[in-house]
Amino acid sequence: MPAKHTHKTALQYIGLGLFALSLLVFTGMLALENYRLTEQDLLATMAPNPEAEGAGTPEASSTVSAGSSGGASDAAPESAPTDPRARLIYEVQAPAFREAATELRLTDQTFGSSFSFQDKVTEVFQAARERVDESVDELIANEELPEGVSEWDVRLSDPAYYTEKFAALTAAAEIGPVVDNPWLFFLLTIGLGVLGGILYILPKFGPHPGIKHDHIYHSQVTKGLNLGWRGFFLAATILGILLFGIRYMAGDWFWPAVTTAIGLLILGLVLWVEGSWHKTRVRAADPAGLSAYIGILAGTYLIGFYVLLYWTPAHVTPWITMVEPLKTALFGGTASQWFLYGLLYTLVILVMGVRMITKYRHNKYQLLRTGSVMFFQLAFAFLIPEILGALNKPQQDLKNIWPLDYDFFFGWQLDQFQSAGAVGIFMLVWGIVLIIVGVPLMVHLVGKRWYCSWVCGCGGLAETMGDPWRQLSDKSLRAWKFERWIVHGVLLAAILMTALTLYTYFTGAGSLLGFETWKVQKWYGFLIGAGFAGVVGTGFYPLMGNRVWCRFGCPLAAYLGLVQRFQSRFRITTNGGQCISCGNCSTYCEMGIDVRAYAQKGQDIVRASCVGCGVCAAVCPRGVLRLENSSVDAGYRTVPERVIHVSEEGVSLVD
Ligand code: SF4
Ligand code: SF4
């Protein structure tokens, strides 16, 4: 392996050390706390008295409708309980929880970890559930169920639907150093991490800007894996998500099975029907030693972070406790895992945005674009929703557009918009206008880059934190074929799921052709909203490049791409005569576009997937590539002969 020249300064080593320390504390603090629950907290969370102060709020409501809890962002506010229903629920459930907790000793002992505490909570929940079932059976047998109250209002569902309640119990039970010193842990983790990152990045203002060919392929963190290992990690993650999905759906395997069947169908279509079984060998990037797995470890850490955050928030309560004082001081109220996530996401984009600025400070397009994603993340995705929440308005991210914002048309969301007065109606109209007019018009004028590379939060993270891994995107024709099947498949799924949602909203029918709306919503939120966009989309930066989600999964990118492909003025023009075939452009294209192949032929690049990041132009040593808007040939560009793919396998037309 060629010698590695990192040229790090002392300041950078200090920065790295501080960052590593912050990560260590951040991870280790999860094991520092103990958990001890009082009966009062148990009942206030699981079976609150409807006549007590504060009862009837979404947080205090005692029942959870099966389709409205436990997802990454599919938690729906519940309607206020009304007598006699709420009264009966309380009278049946409260004694059941009290007796089960006493019998199984939940409330008189201290648990050393969130895992042992959760095990006990689940055990108590199951015991309470049996007691509730017995009471309800008795009420039915004695015909004492009040009119207008269904037995299902009172019975408890599968524990899988109570993820957020269990997380609330864990938070109420938490005791230990983090609860006692939240600001200290905030400074030791997030504070030190930001400081370390800045110290590492600042010296980069010294040397020349731009890519420096300084052994990026040999950097242990960014070199990636060969195809076999990459396939292994991807298959293991997908399998893990599907198996966990069965548990998430409370043992219902129907949608995991449908997903598996669709996945196998796409695999068969691409590999056999479209003849892509044989693939050009990928650039050798097999890790040479143990240290080469640093990047893979980073990806695994990210995957673990997302799994805990999305699906088992009960195990990250110390992280939420740590940011609670900041949330209260800035916006009031209590912190949730989504406040923690928003804060971390924003800080990462800001810090790594500074890195992007140092790297491409010679390029005005990159400076403006990076400044733009930093601004939109800070203002639109973080500050404005938090301020709206403090004002008791819907916490809408006004730049998030359906179908990326997949729950925009969910019933609880539409109700929330309508009950929030003029502000809510504005949000609803704004969202619809963006989908119908804003997106097509802007893409027609300047391409999908206006959103994917200037505004979007997913794109913002990819362009800042993900930049060191952009060269890992697969440039093969086979990857392109997978991309088109999968991303358009997700768009179709989003459209069907939303159509079913609106059908239910306007007719009141809970299902259509046997497909239950809440289950379809729940599975989409789990699989696409959390699994694909979060776990795979970000966790796979070090494995498959920084735009895995944008390229293969984002339904909004698919919609933008269709408009860009057929109706946009945007293209990248190439001055083929100047090209020296160095390949920088293809290497650094995060969307896996073989830019050099177009440049060598002097052919305009008009690809649905191009996010207009402009990095291909920024790294070209000959000024061959230009991002332009022109109406001259907007109709002609879609004819097949203009889309030619050249690879070592030969030249082929892609229609
Ligand atoms: S072709 Fe260029 S502008 Fe388009 S995504 Fe690739 S690197 Fe970015
Ligand atoms: S277009 Fe520029 S970066 Fe791409 S191969 Fe040609 S000279 Fe190199």
UniProtKB/TrEMBL annotation:
GO CC terms: plasma membrane
Highest taxon listed in the record's lineage: Bacteria
Stretches assigned to the 4Fe-4S ferredoxin-type domain: 570-598, 601-630
Pfam families: Fer4_5, Fer4_9
Protein name: 4Fe-4S binding protein
Organism: Neolewinella xylanilytica
Region (Disordered): 48-84
Signal peptide, first to last residue: none
Entry keyword set: 4Fe-4S, Electron transport, Iron, Iron-sulfur, Membrane, Metal-binding, Transmembrane, Transmembrane helix, Transport
Bias kind Low complexity: ranges: 60-80
Residue ranges that the Swiss-Prot or TrEMBL entry lists as coiled coil: none
TM helices/strands, residue ranges: 12-32, 183-202, 227-247, 253-273, 293-312, 338-358, 370-391, 420-443, 485-503, 523-543
The keyword Nucleus belongs to this UniProt entry's keyword annotation: no
